[in-house]
Predict the 3D structure of the following.
Amino acid sequence: MRAASCHAVSEISVLDRNAVFAAVSPAAAIDAVREAFLAHHRGEWVMPSKVYLQSPPHGDFRAMPARGGDLAMLKWISSFPGNGSSGLPSVIGVVIVNDARTSVPLLMLDAGAVTALRTGAVAAIAARALARPDARTVGLIGCGVNGAWAARCLATAGYGPGVCCDPRADVASALAEELGWRVGSRAQALACDIVCCVTPGHEIVVDAGDLRPGTHLNMLGADGPGKAEASIGAVASCALFCDEWAQASHGGELTGVVEAGLVGRDAVTDLGAVLAGDAAGRPGPESVTLFDSTGLAIQDLAIAAAALAAHRAGRVAAQTVRL
Ligand SMILES: NC(=O)c1ccc[n+]([C@@H]2O[C@H](COP(=O)([O-])OP(=O)(O)OC[C@H]3O[C@@H](n4cnc5c(N)ncnc54)[C@H](O)[C@@H]3O)[C@@H](O)[C@H]2O)c1
């Protein structure tokens, strides 16, 4: 009896990057992440603040826990910007899912794939909730790993065609070819109905003079302290929405306007409240709406839970590791 229970705890299934993408389609990711925002808004899914562990001068580690349904999850992920020079990814990590009733570990997943799916999904969810009903075209500024998945999820949600803008011409053209979109300049991307920014956040790509009436902006790149993709003037002129106020006001696109005293809590609406119908979305057709995504652990849990369900249903094979 004791041996059997020890055996159950000592084996854990592992989904690598390809297996995560095979388990959870962009459409499934959009549905799962939307449900997670609603469950968090109702107080059913819980999420303590993310913890940063600095590793100077190389980068930092982030611990992102969440609990919802019968599952608990931790994403343990790094941001080491200089890793590229030694041929390593700048973002590396794992997600661990446990049974929340027994604590038994159930699944480990590649965190990069989980992050890409949940980040892409929220771009589509925010566009559906906040863009004009007749919005179609997408301007993607920053076509790297997470920008590409935002574009794929927006395309899955029915948006496009789009303009792919990136100083790395090869990644922009590969993504444009994949989706049937086109490569274009920053100005051409900014002229689209939905503008999605997913750059490293080291330089301003949206200024106040760039804003056109009726645009919806998804700001995804500035997900930590010291990053910004829009100028303070641009952000202050928009109707503002965020994934979670606590994170967005301290380490997101909203941080600059909050620290300048231009915007307070009352001026920013959480996406979950809009999705639940408890708060108004777009004020009018001429408004410029801005959604600040900083990335939430509940989004990661949503993808991990969907992947676990796919694995349990036999739709994706996992490796097994004996601990
Ligand atoms: N909000 C979230 O939930 C979330 C999730 C994941 C990553 N991020 C953030 O998104 C950003 C991008 O992450 P990634 O993993 O896709 O990185 P990446 O390096 O794969 O891609 C970034 C891309 O931006 C391009 N770029 C740089 N400056 C640009 C400019 N001025 N105009 C247009 N393109 C430009 C780069 O050439 C690159 O292709 C990072 O800051 C990351 O921390 C946010």
User: Anything to note?
Assistant: The two ends are 19 Å apart (CA to CA). Confidence is low (pLDDT under 50) at residues 1-7. The chain has two domains: 2-114+298-322, 119-296. The longest helix spans residues 111-130.
